[in-house]
Design brief:
By secondary structure, this protein is of the alpha/beta class. The chain is built from 13 helices and 14 strands. It is globular.
Amino acid sequence: MVDLNAQYLKIKTEINNAIQNVIDSASFVKSPVITEFENELAGYLKADHVIACGNGTDALQVSLMALDLKPGDEVITPVFTFISTAEVISLLGLKPVPADVDQNTFNIDPAALESTITDKTKAVIPVHLFGQCADMQKIIDITSKYNIYIIEDAAQAMGCDFYFKNNEKLKASTIGNLGCTSFFPSKNLACFGDGGAIITNNDALAEKIRTIANHGMKVKYYYDMVGVNSRLDAIQAAILSVKLKYLDKYNLARQKAADFYDNAFKGVPNIIIPLRAVYSNHIFHQYTLRIKDINRGELKEYLHSKGIPSMIYYPVPIHLQKAFAFLGYKKGDFPVAEELSRTVLSLPMHTELDEEQMNYITQSVIDFVSK
């Protein structure tokens, strides 16, 4: 699905030198290299603060902790997404409230979001799924009416732009009160292990987040609050500093691959290509088809037999997961998410795809659906 080795080989010298410099410094934790990366990413995003942390899930958890929510407070999350959003809400004693998604963009449906708001709703976590922003204009309009925090999950959308009605353009992760991202190796901006970051333009929140992520400590061995231990190590920061220089190039390569896929599948029966919303560019963390009136499992097996990987993101929506049975939802409660879980299929998408590979992938799909 992702050719990380081929990407590495193109920047091998830079990466190896960056790693070696950290080793030579023997400064692996709380190193100046980490601060340098935070500042570089803040400059790229045009954000006031970037606080690096251990991973994307930690970024979500620490962000929620910084908002001083109380047990039982409700946080809305899309029902069709990776489990981490609902997971951290539950771990903190808050109540995850699923909302259905838009069948075309896969992102949270603003109308569904508004319909779930109660007097206990304190925050919403819109997930910019597969590399395209949720409709942040509508989400801001809604949350402003109810005084609700926005925590963006931009783990799959680093470098994606959102276009407001007034022609203002902001990067994903800089639009809400807080933004979270992951640097997991398959992400558009990725390190060689786990890593994450929290983004904000609020000085007070930034200071609090740094404290929480450092065991609740500002001055060594003096603890102002109950915190956690979540930090990015210096080797990963050094790698990310190198790869950040190539992020726009990487995203462009993904967009070109998506264009190839789009053109190949245009007009092919039983295949619905990804929608590109007018309010957001799409940086294609995943290229996800919707399959209609054919057996998706058989298609997946056919591609596997041809040496082509594919993935189902996500086979079971959050409300039907065993871990969240306690919420009391049942099959049929979120019809769009349930339909997507039955019909989506993601094809290989990365920076090193070449025309020969994409021809082989697309022709194999077309051969199967044309039987």
